[in-house]
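Support case: adenosine-5'-diphosphate complex. Customer-provided input:
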Amino acid sequence: MRDEPRPAAAAPDSMGPFSAPDPALPIMPAPQRLLRLLALLLGLAALIGGASYATFRVSQAMGLAELQLTGRHRLDLYSASLEREIDKYAYFPTTLGLERDVLDLLAKGERDTPLARRMNVYLEQLNDRAGTLSVYVLDTRGTVLATSNWRRPDSFLGEDLSFRPYFRDAMENGSSRFFGIGTTRGEPGYYLASALTNAQGTVGVAVVKVSLEQLEKSWATVEAPVLVSDENGVVILASVPDWKFTALAPLDEATRHTFDRTQQYNRRALNPLGVKEIAALDHGARMVKLPRVGPEMVSVFPVTGQFLAQSQPLPGTPWSLTVFSHVEPVREMAASRAALAGIAAVLVFIVLIMFNERRRHLRDRLAAREALQRAHDELERKVAVRTADLSAANARLQEEVAERIRAERTLRAAQDELVQAGKLAVIGQLSAGIAHELNQPLAALRTLSGNAGKFLDRGDLPTVRGNLTRIAQLVDRMGSLTGQLKSFARKSSGQPRPVVLQQALDNALALLDQRLRQSGTRVVSRLPAADLVAHCDPNRLEQVLVNLIGNALDAMAGQPEPCLELSGEAAGTLLRLRVRDHGPGLSDDVRAHLFEPFFTTKEAGVGLGLGLPISAGIVRDFGGTLDGDNHPEGGAVFTLEIPAADENRHD
Ligand code: ADP
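Agent response - structure generated as follows:
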């Protein structure tokens, strides 16, 4: 059994999932388990919080960086489109100086001349073709000599525009660019002015006013709000109409005074836009908050809230272009990524817990298996020890049994010897009687044979025949006597077989016939008519009967009318036979030692004290009992109970 291959200790699947926990394994107490659960929950919360926060921050930083990149691209794009729009007209005023009539008009400085009228028409046609707001020329004093809008009632023909900065700049520097609101029609526009010169010098200034409305309209649909502010911080172009002509920073008094003088913004209020800077980021970007400026939102995209503001100067102008990128999507994206990270953290946590549980489960199983193996080994060891003990005990027992058998054999041999000795003793007791019994017929034989000879001589043949017949009868009787003796004396086989009780009794009585007749004993036999058949060894049964009847005759010796009563009956699976005499009966002392070997009250040489113990042993071997008692009416009665043969059973 020890050589059997052990099952692999680490094979968890060989054990059922519902296997009972090994009570030998430590079980965690309740408070400890609670603490562990608390620690787990805290760990989970920390993991979720940490993962979400880190993801949020990283995602937001990445989103903002991306937003900045996009913002810069937009800045480049919008700046390029604005530059293109302005540059289209950059050389327009200068080209007017190539026109001789224009130079002549300015040189003469007269308005109501045919040349001036012709110039008006010329400039009108030029304005229509170029798609500009207006084209006009001023003399060196700043008076409008010819203009494209000469037909209109609000035409500024003849007006003095010397106060306009673009005029002064152009006179001083040769050219000028200026954004402003028209003084007559209040129309915002971009003024491009250029000094015109002839051989004598500067003769005047040519001005082209360009509308940037178209560009502005195209911006209205852009995703990110965009604005252009001038050197004063006033918003001159914006994708959100409400932002236009607002100030990015509050204007001081001196600036406002200048605006009044130059009428740059035609006395507009120029209220602050209210952009609140929250934080300055790298690359000049700012985090700002845009206020709600009007009730209606013209753009489908949000224009209020937190934005990333990025600005860039517009080349060739004192202006600055600013793009606002909405930060909210970045924050939303970061928040959803943080939530995802939180869920992932929970999943990781669950996986870790499951892994840990699995590991613990395996460890417990391994421990249980090892404990089981140890118990198994211990059990096997004990079994081996016990088996060895048992085999030793068994060997001892077998020896004892063999010893007993040997002793029993010896005992049985001794018993057989005793039986035989008993028989021989009986024969010895009988020998005198037998001798007498044989002597009588022998003497008769002698006489008869002698007489037969004499009668033969006389020729009395009938008497001879009669004598011979008598001789034959006597010989038969002697033969039968010696036959009975021989059969009594022979060693019995001990094999039980059906025995007719009457026959055994007759044989015993025949053996004792001489004593019976000598003592004149009356034998009263009360056996049922039907044969009682016992199951035993007949030879030994006869020996028992001879013993009992012999003892009865001994007890009644010297009585005038001795009487022997024999009675038999069937009692269930047994046959009961009683031998009663009319002797003195059994004294208390005799009764106490009745079946003890060598107990006798008879004279030395007469009794050996073996008859009853041997008889009791024989009956016990049959499976029956032998008992001696006093008869209520006097005398002793011996009761013999022996198994009945099958045909004689009454059960
Ligand atoms: P033994 O006949 O050699 O003495 P037994 O064993 O047959 O040995 O008998 C033992 C004793 O039992 C006898 O000596 C006698 O005293 C007593 N006993 C046996 N049978 C009778 C009887 N029928 N009546 C009176 N005493 C008896």
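The pocket of adenosine-5'-diphosphate is lined by residues 547, 551-552, 555, 581, 583, 586, 590, 594, 599-602, 607-609, 611-612, 636 (CB under 6 Å).

Case will auto-close in a few days if no follow-up is received.
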